[in-house]
Design a protein that fits this description.
By secondary structure, this protein is of the alpha+beta class. It has two domains: 66 residues, no CATH class; 140 residues, 60s Ribosomal Protein L30, Chain: A (2-Layer Sandwich). It is built from eight helices and five strands. Strands 1-2-5-3-4 form a five-stranded mixed beta sheet. Helix 1 runs parallel beside helix 3, helix 4 packs antiparallel against helix 6 and helix 6 crosses helix 7. The radius of gyration is 20 Å and the shape is globular. The protein starts with a helix and ends with a strand. The relative contact order is 0.14.
Amino acid sequence: MKNTMILGSCLLAFVLGGCASMTETQKGTAKGAAIGAGAGAVVGAIAGKGKGAAIGAAVGAGVGAVAGNVWTKRQEEQKRQMEEATAGTGVGVTQTADNRLKLDIPSDVSFDVGRSDIKSNFRTVLDAFATSLVNNPASNVTIIGHTDSTGSDAVNNPLSLNRAASVRDYVVTRGVQSSRIVIDGRGSREPLVANDTAANRAKNRRVEIFVAEPAN
């Protein structure tokens, strides 16, 4: 078990160590593969027994490497386009640790308090987002709605889901296939900060959009 743990660690260090001479696209791809491979090595080591442990680790590493997301030139271009489209709006555009493009959209941009219909100024952002999705058909999308802790779960849970559904429905009208989109509503269960001030509650009322391009 100890040797297989070392194998997983070495594999991770080897791939990440090669990042110095890589392009940004290659770095993202390598990191995603390394994280998957490292996790796969540990799983494989646990599954393997005796002499088969090393084989189990190697197989697990291979599966882990394939299972992750990749950060491609298309993803990088999509990130650039969304940064331009959302400049000055308060929308955050980032690359996550697992190689997904994330749009973090505060409530003052997207929805009025207690409502799930999209604000007019949010439509401009979603128009640009939908265009980037149409141009990147290999990606899939997860949209998650959140609320603050004001009100009960009976109100917050469906409200958060309805907000995610409104975003999905809007981009579908702009040519994005609904089969590419998964939605979820988390209510008030995943706050960014404590719901102890009006400013903090505003931060927790948000929609998060994740775009991923799975490794083949």
